[in-house]
Write a structure and sequence with these properties.
By secondary structure, the chain is an all-beta fold. About 0% of the residues lie in helices and about 35% in strands.
């Protein structure tokens, strides 16, 4: 909730799930909206007035210009009132950012088949009505919110525009917008229409329109039987932006029009009434409820206010959008390895820690193998709490040493559990209580993200959370402390989110990175192949870059890559719910037919940058083996309800990368396999986002279920949260055989530091020696491999020693050298030159 002059305004009621324009805050930590709403709500002071006006709703239309139909345009202040774009509109460059145009979206061929045929097939007119139900065949609206059309998938929480102050009537109000005409129209054009619904039937409407020839604005208010004409004193020249403001004085029962800050004639007498409440009420911009009367132009920065913002001439306002904050990003060292890193003759290793994920640093590695290592031990630390409890977890080690585990609880509200020792967790009282839970931190449905502490964030937005919200898009939340969160009300990605998004800041590339699930790819048998795409953004506070695709481009991709119907994928959820992620972003996690069995999928990747060494990224993809496909029949038989199983099983595997883009996955051994854990047979395992370090250990958490995916038989008592303990740097090792000695060499490199430290496990009967060679491959006197004291240890920090020289290598710092390793029965995890 946000306080305003004279009351509280503009937030949904989180307990009821309904939107209420005026409501009281429930507690001290009530969920807050973005600062944009605060400024717009508190600082609308009328010219010539002493009272303040408050924003009812405000649409800046600053979503991406390519926005697909069915995708959301948010109200950025006041009531949380999303609109969806239709085939009868598009976004175009505006006065400020983008603007809403009634130019139709480029023609799209509506396919005959798909997952949800209710929106793809034309439907008959229901008895007692005159309008066809909404489908893609008639979704020619420009921008719409509606309580009707309940035959469609509707995951966007539209407000009821007749149940709040969007329902303009007998109170002081102001409607203002920027308008650019495309030319002189011979027909009336709709700015907005609010109706009780059903739309296009015999409902009652309030409509603001522009008269043919743009000679006047006309307000139709059917409850009062009113048609008020407000002449435009100065010509609204086409191709030019004009600020238009309609102001209603309820006590005087007068309407006034201002154009470009100047009064446009005298006030017009008008006694207005609100519309009666309608259960199928709607608000349509740019076209009326039958998608007729299109406005021949563009709208930008449409704002409705309670109160008279203007009573005399004024200077037209600038943009209501809050400027993007200037943030100085923290940059790490440039990437040394990976496809984007330049190939150099001499690797400037410096004092970087190098993890032996692969042979990126090696010039010779005959006989060496790379082995993935599961956690060393696992223990259950939390039982599943009764009621809704999402399996997608994030573990954050905060700046005070408190481990916080975030996941979704009742109604997908985000909640938190905390621990000092990583084993005993409790539910803190955050002040936000909902359905028996007292540990809520975000009081709205937002279960599909990962909270992080952003190294670039100023104190007031130090914490970041990027998550799908309802079914309407992926949004940014910020917080100073991880307890009180603010949603920024324009989606950073406008797609419906089908599962948890991985998210982190990559300091070496200077980008925020996200991984998001797409269900567009198709299995050979026709089912869904779950894959993950990657997004990158230099800043979080505006929509992130996406490569939009036309229908023709999607068809072209489908010639070489199996894709599901309908195409394009944004048609899938119908005209009132955004499409899921498609193939606009590059795919980075997918089943590999070279190693994975048919019917595999990546459920969620759990990818992150490794915090304790550069050039290292780790992921823990939850790999799904599903039974739904009809072939082979012997596998599909497992889906038989009589067996009491479900739709499949999941395990966690390990993947590593040098750049976060190109990944190598180790399918075996499974990182966390399904199996028996502390007396429970787990058939689904979901690794938590996030790594926690304590000394020489890395702690990870995962959610384990005895139930199969989409289980036939429910067993919630068999679910819980487990802690997995891993060796520091211990995900992958470079291994020498036990039965023979091998020798490997690094590429030429330079270093800084005075000692060489290894993370190594030789076991009791294995050993290692290290030599330092010059740029020609000759041993440097005193540092030859034969001079190295045997390394026979299991240590995360073993300092290499040479007879007669000790451990000090500072004399060789900045010289071009090579390292030679003589190994037998040893596992090498990392190396680093460092100070003592």
């Amino acid at each position: 909730m946000i306080a305003r002059a004279g009351g509280i305004f503009g937030a949904p009621s989180r307990c009821s799930g309904k939107h209420e324009l005026f409501a009281e805050p429930r507690n001290a930590h009530a969920f807050r909206y973005t600062v944009r709403g605060v400024i717009a709500g508190l600082l609308l002071f009328s010219v010539g007035e002493t009272s303040a006006a408050t924003t009812i709703a405000q649409w800046t239309f600053d979503e991406p210009e390519w926005l697909y139909p069915s995708h959301v345009m948010d109200s950025t202040a006041g009531v949380d009132a999303p609109l969806v774009l239709g085939l009868g509109g598009r976004l175009v460059p505006g006065k400020f950012g983008n603007a809403l145009s009634t130019e139709p979206y480029p023609p799209v061929v509506i396919p005959a088949r798909g997952e949800r045929t209710a929106s793809l097939a034309r439907l008959p007119v229901p008895a007692g009505r005159t309008q066809e139900p909404l489908t893609w065949h008639n979704a020619q609206f420009c921008a719409l919110m509606t309580g009707g059309e309940r035959h469609l998938r509707k995951e966007v929480s539209f407000v009821n525009p007749t149940a709040n102050d969007l329902n303009l009537g007998d109170f002081d109000w102001t409607v203002e917008f920027w308008l650019r005409l495309r030319g002189t129209s011979s027909e009336e054009g709709t700015v907005f229409e609010i109706g009780t619904g059903p739309r296009g039937e015999n409902g009652i409407v309030t409509r603001l329109s522009l008269e043919a020839g743009a000679r006047a604005f006309v307000l139709h208010n059917q409850p009062a039987g009113l048609t008020a004409r407000l002449p435009v004193k100065r010509e609204l020249s086409s191709r030019t932006w004009h600020h238009c403001a309609l102001v209603y004085d309820a006590s005087a029962a007068e309407l006034s029009l201002f154009v470009d800050g100047e009064p446009s004639g005298s006030a017009v007498s008008a006694k207005l009434h609100r519309l009666p409440r309608g259960e199928e009420a709607y608000l349509s911009l740019g076209r009326d409820g039958r998608w007729a009367r299109p406005l021949s132009g563009e709208l930008d920065e449409l704002r409705l206010s309670r109160g008279r913002v203007y009573t005399a001439g004024f200077t037209p306002p600038g943009s209501y959008a809050i400027p993007e904050p200037r943030i100085e990003t923290q940059r790490g060292p440039p990437l040394l390895f990976g496809r984007e890193a330049p190939r150099v003759d001499v690797v400037p290793l410096g004092d970087r820690k190098y993890l032996f994920f692969d042979d990126a640093l090696l010039a010779r590695a005959d006989g060496l193998t790379f082995t993935a290592h599961p956690p060393r031990r696992v223990e259950r630390v939390m039982e599943k709490i009764e009621g809704q409890f999402r399996k997608h977890l994030t573990a954050v080690d905060d700046e005070m040493g408190l481990i916080r585990i975030f996941n979704a609880g009742p109604d997908d509200y985000l909640m938190v559990h905390v621990s000092r020792d990583g084993v005993h967790f409790e539910s803190p009282d955050t002040g936000i209580h909902h359905k028996g839970r007292r540990n809520i931190v975000i009081a709205e449905g937002t279960p599909l993200g990962r909270p992080i502490i952003d190294p670039n964030g100023p104190p007031e937005t130090r914490w970041k959370y990027v998550s799908g919200h309802e079914g309407r898009g992926v949004y940014l939340y910020t917080s100073p402390d991880g307890w009180k969160w603010t949603r920024h009300r324009t989606a950073v990605l406008p797609f419906r989110s089908g599962s948890q998004s991985s998210f982190f800041y990559d300091d070496q590339r200077g980008l925020y990175v996200g991984y998001h699930r797409t269900g567009f790819p198709r299995l050979p048998t026709g089912g869904t192949q779950r894959e993950y795409v990657r997004s990158e953004a230099a800043t979080l506070f505006r929509p992130w870059p996406v490569n939009p695709l036309t229908q023709a481009q999607v068809w072209e991709i489908a010639k070489t890559r199996p894709l599901r119907e309908p195409q394009p994928w944004w048609l899938d959820n119908g005209p009132l719910t955004p499409g899921d992620f498609g193939v606009e972003l590059p795919t980075v996690f997918a089943p590999d037919p070279a190693i994975d069995p048919p019917g595999s999928g990546v459920y969620v990747p759990k990818a992150t940058k490794y915090p304790w060494a550069p050039d290292a990224y780790v992921a823990f993809p939850c790999m799904y083996f599903h039974y739904e496909d009809p072939e082979p029949r012997t596998r599909a038989a497992l889906m038989d309800n009589a067996r009491g199983l479900g739709s499949g099983t999941l395990e966690v595997q390990l993947a590593v990368s040098r750049d976060g883009v190109n990944w190598r996955r180790f399918p075996r051994p499974a990182y966390v396999p399904m199996g028996r854990y502390e007396g429970r047979d787990l058939h689904q395992v979901y690794m938590a986002e996030g790594l926690v370090r304590r000394g020489d250990e890395i702690w990870q958490y995962f959610y384990g279920q005895e139930e199969y995916h989409s289980p036939v038989k429910r067993n919630p008592a068999g679910n819980g949260i487990y802690r997995a303990v891993q060796r520091l740097d211990g995900f992958v090792s470079a291994d020498a055989p036990y039965d023979r000695e091998i020798s490997i060499r690094t590429r030429l490199l330079t270093f800084k530091g005075s000692q060489l430290v290894l993370n190594i496990d030789t076991g009791a009967l294995g050993y290692a020696q290290v030599g330092i060679l010059d740029e020609h491959g000759a041993a440097i006197p005193g540092f030859a491999t034969n001079d190295c004291v045997y390394i026979n240890t299991n240590s995360v920090a073993c300092t290499v020693e040479w007879l007669g020289r000790g451990t000090d290598v500072s004399a060789l710092a900045a010289r071009t050298v090579q390292l030679e390793f003589r190994l037998r029965g040893a596992s090498l995890y990392s190396l680093q030159f460092s100070a003592p």
